[in-house]
Amino acid sequence: MIEVTKLTKQFIRKEKYGWRTKRSVFSAVLDIDLSWNQDESIAIVGESGCGKSTLGRMIAGIIQPTSGHLQISEASEEKDILFHRKRMARLVQLIPQDPYAALNPVRTIRSMLSDPLRYHRMVFRHEITDKMTELLELVGLKAELVLDKYPHQLSGGQRQRIVIARALTLDPHYLIADESVSMVDVSLRLSILDEMKEISRNRRLGLMFITHDFRVARYIAQGGWIAVMYLGRLIEIGPTEEILQHPQHPYTQALITAVPILRGKERQVEQVWPRSYELQVGQDPVGCAFAPRCPFVKPICELERPVFHSLDCKKKHQVACHEATSRTIIAKDFG
Amino acid sequence: MNKLVKRLGSSFLIIVIVTTMTFFLIRLMPGNPYQVMYHQFLMQGMNAQQAQDQVRSILNVSPNQPVWQQFIQWFTDLLHGSLGTSIQETGVPVTELIFNALPWTLVTVSIGLLLSFVIGIVLGVISATKRNSWLSGMIDNIGSIAHAVPAYVTAVALLYLFNVVWHIFPSSGAYGIMDTPGLNWSFISSFLYHMALPVSTYVLTGFGSWELAMKSTTITVINDDFMMAARLRGLTRQTQMRYLGWNSILPLFTGFMLSLGGMFGGSIFIEGTYSFPGIGALFATSIGSRDYPVMEGCFLLTTTTIILANVIADMFYTKLDPRIVD
């Protein structure tokens, strides 16, 4: 299980005014509490700039949190930082967003996949090719067609599959996918999502899918969890079906409203539209961060920060909002 | 292969065009040596015919011949492998002068260029990886200042400091007067001793641009997702540096080959200051004394090396970078 408590990442921004530099602190991720089991999938939803990628990279261990704690139950505490990195690499892997930038342009797919296998001594030397073939088949590629090619000779979909295969070379327990299909053709998205779902199910892989698209979140996290982020904070978390049926936070409702629906399916009663589409990054308000955009804003929202509370008795669905209430807004049958 | 032949063919054409143009251009400069010699003989009391014959017997060129006829004669000689004879050092073949000067320049400039490239690359990587520290700013500033100071100023400054003030390095020549060139230790050590200042000048004026170029390419590569992926997979620091270095050096390769080709041009200002008997000094003195055949020979050499280096860079680049397909 991965358990994250009070995880925070702050960046220091320097702004130059002539000779003087003004430093300001910008919080990309603020006080996030989250726990997530190895056989579950979780989708992190939020608009761009809300810190969801930073969260993913912190959990993968390639950027250090400013404060807070990250506990992976399978990992033992290692003092040596290099050894720690090596151990972490076999626990959590991250699939970067852009398949065009994620592959070293001057190395063949073979050397790309075999480097980690050799370095981590995953298999015997003579088994490396077999292992690579197996991995490539897993993501739906023919080994003899791609192994000795360079990245530029492959299509976007093929690259995305290679990136997934590369993340799987070390048999990680957890996989974090950072907007993994946003750069791929729409026609290929579904098959890649299906493959990721199947791989994570077969290998008992804890999948964290970071996305801005509620449709993708719903599809990938069936039976799992959805967590919604806004300006670095978690504002709502719950089981996927629960969130989709009864979203409590106005922002979640707005995100679901933003999903276009096909003609013929009626959206029910009130729709939630944010008052403004501008994301205010930088200042950390006293009250609720969403208050300036919220259509249901009350005086209390700007004075007091809402805390996470649960509305159902099982405490699974939690929301941080003063005005949390179920507003039925999604299409009736979304299947 | 076919492509190589094509490239060489077009390069040959370019060389011919450039040398033709320089042949006519240098004759536009004031001070025609043929005319000067002709008038000297006239003043010594010869009549026009005698003076003309005298000039022809010494320099093998008629002073009043039209330029295009001179060109045809020079070009046919060139096709037979002869660059003519020097005017200043009367009767000495230009090829001999060039081949005597070539090794000195070739060795010093190659060493200087390689050193400045390596130093620039290393400093560039350091500056890029420590981007937000004072070290990076210091390296960048030193690099751009050293790059901004003209080579001949650096040369004079070094000469003043290390020769006049501190008496550490010799002021002129390529080797001591007691040594004979050859594969003996005394000559080699003397040569290294004498080339210290010229090589330092090449390094000081050269490394800045490599450093700045390397820094900018390294910063682009370091932020690429595949570098993050390498860290993510827990690869060693050496492997990561190999990924980083190779990807950031590639764009600099063409520039390196081109400056290797332009090495003779750069040596003009430096070798003169150190009285170093290389191509640059030969070039400078030949321009000063309007020694047409030597100037043409030097121009031919410079043009040829630049263009050949260009061809080689093109050919190798497709081998080094798999993204470029020929």
Description of the structure:
The complex is a heterodimer of chains A (335) and B (326). With 335 residues, chain A is α/β, with parallel strands linked by helices. Chain A has a domain of 81 residues. Chain A is 29% helix and 23% strand. Chain A is built from ten helices and eleven strands. In chain A, the strands form two sheets. Chain A has an eight-stranded mixed sheet, with helices on both faces. In chain A, strand 8 and strand 9 form a beta hairpin. Chain B has two domains: 78 residues, no CATH class; 227 residues, MetI-like (MetI-like fold). The model of chain B has no long low-confidence stretch (mean pLDDT 86). Helices cover 76% and strands 0% of the residues of chain B. By secondary structure, chain B is an all-alpha fold. At the A-B interface, helix 2 and helix 3 of A face helix 9 and helix 10 of B.
Features of the shown structure:
heterodimer; A: 335 residues; alpha/beta; 8-stranded mixed β-sheet; 3-stranded antiparallel β-sheet; 10 helices; 11 strands; B: 326 residues; mainly alpha; MetI-like fold; 2 domains; 13 helices; globular
Give a topology summary.
The complex is a heterodimer of chains A (335) and B (326).
Chain A: E1 2-17, E2 20-36, E3 41-45, H1 52-60, E4 67-72, H2 81-89, E5 92-95, H3 109-119, H4 128-138, H5 143-146, H6 156-168, E6 174-178, H7 186-202, E7 206-211, H8 214-220, E8 225-230, E9 233-239, H9 240-245, H10 250-258, E10 309-310, E11 318-319
Parallel strand pairs in A: 3-7, 3-8, 5-6, 6-7
Antiparallel strand pairs in A: 1-2, 1-4, 8-9, 9-11, 10-11
Chain B: H1 2-26, H2 33-43, H3 48-59, H4 67-79, H5 94-129, H6 134-148, H7 151-165, H8 185-222, H9 225-232, H10 237-261, H11 263-273, H12 279-288, H13 292-320
Helix pairs in contact in B: 1-13, 2-3, 5-6, 5-8, 5-10, 5-13, 6-8, 7-8, 8-10, 10-13, 11-12, 12-13
